[in-house]
Amino acid sequence: MKIKRYKKVNKNINFYINNFGFRQPYQLLVDGTFCFAALNNQVNIADNIPRYLHGETKLLTTQCAVMEMETLGSKLHGALLILKKYGIHKCGHEGKPVAGSKCLLSMLGNHNENHYIICTQDRDLQEKVRNIPGVPLLYLHIKTPNLEQPSEASEKFAKERLSGIGEIEKVAINKLKTEKGLLSQEDKPKKKRKKGPNPLSCKKRKKPGNLQNNNIKKKEGQPEIEKKKRKRIKIPQHVQEALLGLFCWTSFGIYFCCPFL
Ligand SMILES: [Zn+2]
């Protein structure tokens, strides 16, 4: 297989894996038209398709698809034998079989919950399948299997779901983080930077008070001595008056006791 083709298949199958939860073994829902085309072009479905998809596959069909082939006569006998080899999934039409295309569509439902890959050459069925999101379509182009690129419906559904879940999840996660106090620095809204020159590229302004201090170089290893501020003790007024009186009396006593001084 050419690299370009390999990349294309990988891209398409990964779309369904990532957006719609497809997993191996891939469930291939095959109808009579696909088996008929494979037989005509000598394509071995059981060998070629897993190799093409690079993964394990389960080949499946429905009872309605088999019964439709049986009613179409001997020309399709070979295709019928191939189809009968595959596993039959219950379609819910037991006792009241419907057309193969209708049955396959009913198996898909609205969102293809069982992750089927539809293998058909029926153009009408292909058109209807494209309108259901999350349904890969596989058909044969002569001898070459071709997994069609995701339809518009699938792309749209995947985009809407991703954007919706993303927003809801973000809000819920941030709310929980805020409640638990786990809001990291990255999650917090960033503060706007102040405009102006980069402070790291500018010289620091020298304060006038620091100029004198900067001139006095400290000796290395010498502990910094903190200057203690003197506390001014306020003496109450009555104490001041008492002290003044005491001082006057003392001076007066000294004067009289020592008149010659
Ligand atoms: Zn059915």
UniProtKB/TrEMBL annotation:
GO terms for biological process: rRNA processing. It holds the Pfam family Fcf1. InterPro entries: Fcf1/UTP23, PIN-like_dom_sf, UTP23_sensor. Keywords: Nucleus, Ribosome biogenesis, rRNA processing. This is rRNA-processing protein UTP23 homolog. Residues 182-232 are annotated as: Disordered. It comes from the Eukaryota. Involved in rRNA-processing and ribosome biogenesis. Belongs to the UTP23/FCF1 family. UTP23 subfamily. GO terms for cellular component: small-subunit processome. Residues 190-208 have a biased composition (Basic residues). Residues 188-207 form the UTP23 sensor motif region domain. Residues 217-227 have a biased composition (Basic and acidic residues). The lineage of its organism: Eukaryota, Metazoa, Ecdysozoa, Arthropoda, Hexapoda. It is found in: Nucleus, Nucleolus. Its main location: nucleus. PANTHER family: RRNA-PROCESSING PROTEIN UTP23 HOMOLOG.
